[in-house]
Write a structure and sequence with these properties.
- The chain is an all-alpha fold.
- Helices cover 69% and strands 0% of the residues.
- The chain has 7 helices and no strands.
- Helix 4 runs antiparallel to helix 5.
- It is elongated and about 65 Å long.
- The chain starts with 13 loop residues before the first helix and ends with a helix.
């Protein structure tokens, strides 16, 4: 909005300065995700892909399919230093970040929602995972500092 909106009043030039900063931020792209965040997203997407593959019930497939696009979108957008979006902007941002992979995922989601068949979505997801090192199952570990501190405090008693 700041980069492309219409300025109605700019008495002291502040709107121009804000516009220049906003344009620079858009041009530069977002900061890269931390490595631990990428690993967590890889694991979550791999798990969702496994769930989608194993779901024998159409309702379960739809539930998992609703999660997959937003889980997957962060990875190609981060890889290409592109801005992410939500809602109706999600497919647009995916296409802007990566035309091939960005088109395959929403097409797979639409196909699944219309026909119940997960094949196209399942086929689209590995290409996204390949950008960031492939599927992640074994060896992924996540720790929560508060939980570890609580467990440690209890075990010392």
């Amino acid at each position: 909005m700041c980069a492309t909106g219409l300025v109605l009043v700019d008495a002291n030039g502040e709107a121009g300065r804000v516009r220049a900063l906003a344009c620079a931020d858009l041009r530069d792209g977002p900061p890269a995700l931390e490595a631990v965040t990428v690993e967590t997203k890889r694991y979550a997407l791999t798990d969702a892909l496994d769930d989608l593959t194993d779901a024998g019930d159409q309702i379960e497939r739809l539930a998992v399919a609703g999660f997959v696009p937003s889980a997957a979108a962060d990875l190609p957008c981060d890889y290409h230093h592109a801005w992410i979006g939500g809602g109706k902007r999600l497919p647009r941002r995916l296409l802007e970040a990566d035309a091939e992979r960005g088109a395959a995922l929403p097409k797979g989601h639409l196909h699944l929602c219309k026909s119940g068949g997960p094949g196209l979505m399942i086929d689209a997801t590995p290409g996204i995972l390949d950008l960031v090192g492939g599927p992640l199952r074994e060896g992924h570990r996540r720790t929560w500092r508060g939980v570890i501190e609580s467990v440690t405090a209890v075990s010392r008693r």
